[in-house]
Amino acid sequence: MTLTVALPKGRLGKTSWEYLFDPMPYPFDDRKLTFENDAYKVLWVKPSDVLTYVEAGIADCGITGLDTLNELNPQVYRIKALPYGMCQLVVAGPKKVSESAGATLKVATKYPNLARKYFKENGQKIQLIPLQGSVELAPIVGLSDVIVDIVETGSTLKANDLEVKKTIMTSHAMMVANPAKHRLKFNEIQTLLENIRKEP
């Protein structure tokens, strides 16, 4: 029975391929969106769409970041934490800005749910500014006081004179499955898990 796996475009997807399917050559480019052999069908989709395909049952399972999983909280089964894709979800801003209670803080982010939850738990009033592009620009031009975003090395923050104020969570790659498909294709998913390499 063929197992359909949704992988995110970009570095996380390429690393996932190395962990899951090495030594098969990486088959994707900017135009090719699917790969199929006797055992697997792999869908190459936008990172934000992986969970949509899995939740709908189009993909049996997929790889996403824990940050995206916690932000969207879809109806999927969390199968396994994977040892790559490490990064932090942080509050960051100019050095002169204090992330403290008091006045309403303007927060730009791609993670409105996680940002809202974090600041509510810390008693901070915020004005949320949802963005999809480079959120680092927002405090530079005065659109926001701070941002909530994913940081891997911190080099982009440093290049734009921003600094980490607080770390909200540590993220990593996660394998998830559609609940019904997990029951139907349990053996196939277990076989895929057994193939995961400890190092890419």
What does this structure look like?
This protein is an alpha/beta fold and 200 residues long. It has two domains: 3-84 and 172-194, D-Maltodextrin-Binding Protein, domain 2 (3-Layer(aba) Sandwich); 87-171, Periplasmic binding protein-like II (D-Maltodextrin-Binding Protein, domain 2), CATH 3.40.190. The protein contains eight helices and eleven strands. Strand 2 (34-36) and strand 3 (40-45) form a beta hairpin. The protein is elongated. The protein starts with a strand and ends in a 6-residue tail after the last helix.
CATH superfamily of the largest domain: Periplasmic binding protein-like II
Quantity of strands, as a count = 11
Radius of gyration: 19 Å
Give the class-level CATH name of the largest domain: Alpha Beta
The chain-level mean pLDDT equals: 92
Strand and helix map with partners:
Layout: E1 3-8, H1 11-21, E2 34-36, E3 40-45, H2 50-56, E4 61-65, H3 66-72, E5 77-81, E6 87-94, E7 105-109, H4 112-121, E8 126-130, H5 137-141, E9 146-151, H6 155-159, E10 162-171, E11 173-177, H7 179-184, H8 186-194
Parallel strand pairs: 1-3, 1-4, 7-8, 7-9
Antiparallel strand pairs: 2-3, 4-11, 5-11, 6-9, 6-10
Summed up:
The protein is an alpha/beta fold. It is built from eight helices and eleven strands.
Top keywords for this entry?
8 helices, alpha/beta, six-stranded mixed β-sheet, D-Maltodextrin-Binding Protein, domain 2, 200 residues, 2 domains
